[in-house]
Amino acid sequence: MHLLVWFNLNDLWRGELAAFRQRHPEIEVTVTTDLEDPGVAEADLAIGTAVPLSVVERAHKLRFLGVSLAGVDHLPLELLHQRGITLAAAHTNGIYVAERALALILGFLGNIAPYDRDLRQGKWHGFAAGEPADAAWHSLRGASVTLLGTGSIGQGLARLLAPFDCRITGYRRTNALASPPFDRMNTDLIEAVTGAHIVVCSLPLTEETRGVLSAQVFAAMPGALFVNVGRGAIADEAALYNALREGVLRGAAIDTWYRYPAGDAATHPGAFPFHTLDNVLLSPHLGGYTPQAVAASLRDIFRQLDIFLKTGDLPEAVDTRRRY
Fold first, then answer.
1. Per the omega criterion (within 30 degrees of 0), is the bond before 181 cis?
2. What pLDDT, on a 0 to 100 scale, did the predictor assign at position 263?
């Protein structure tokens, strides 16, 4: 059996791979990012991060593909489904993305970024500047929060919000039974966001969720703070920009976007000028990108690979038809 590691190794990967080789000395390993390497065609198993379509097409014997990421929308899912290839993704970074979502909420409500910028210029806010309290920062305590997505991110964020005495509603497409730390569960999107002070999206990007956050949905949550740590394309870009520009939404704190850099050139994160809006807190898609999260995700992929090698099956595998 042959394992392809499609990655330029760093110390973390070297350590995990060395431990894997000790556990499975019978498995030949090829480490490469060269499509012409003979090990690509020989691979029964493959792991990496962004494994391109060309690798899957060339690896005719491939049975297992593991990626040390939670999102899989960048992968050739249709081909993986057609060939019956088991797909493993790492969801251990959910607690870290949840932490980032909480930081974005607190950062926006607390005016952390604008107050920092102003104070560096000697401009004060709050009682020191004679401003009323309602013009200063706002507390998260007691807020009504709707979490679109109740997977590892949504559950982790719900637990983080609980000490703030927030009223937490979860949204999922099926099964409306609520359990702590959720106070309520809803399967209707409009009903779920209605009345919320804060709406956090951690949904996966699928054909069903692409653009599902439409102008109609944003109109149902007037005055709310919208936080996106799922995927940019879940929120219709024009609808989101207009809702922010026109004041339908109180604001947004966004970590997942519509445009990404292809090189060193400066790249704004959308076709619309979100970066010009004062009611938007921008974050460059790094919610799950911490040393702890990267290490946990890599360990998780090798753990799932071990299960597949032992049993020939992986109950927690990604459903390549549903895309999560």
1. yes
2. 87
Q: What is the pTM of this model?
A: 0.93
Identity (one letter) of the amino acid at 270? G
Q: How confident is the model at residue 267 (pLDDT cuts 50, 70, 90)?
A: very high
Calpha distance 110→183 (Å, rounded): 25
Q: Are residues 156 and 230 in the same domain?
A: yes
Give me the residue label for tokens 């921008």. 282
Left, alpha or beta for 250 (phi > 0: left; psi -120 to 50: alpha)? alpha
- Domain span including residue 304: 2-92+291-311
**Mean pLDDT across 179-192:** 94
Asked, for residue 322, whether it belongs to a domain, the answer is no
Residue 235 in tokens:
């929120």
Q: What is the pLDDT of residue 301?
A: 97
Residue 197 forms part of a structural domain: yes
pLDDT tier, 157 (very low <50, low <70, confident <90, very high otherwise): very high
229 and 105 in a single domain? The answer is yes
Angle at which helices 152-161 and 94-109 cross, to 10°: 50
- 165 & 37 share domain: no
CATH label of the domain that carries residue 300: 3.40.50.720
Give me the chain's average pLDDT, please.
96
Report how many domains make up the chain: 2
Same domain (yes/no): 104, 87: no
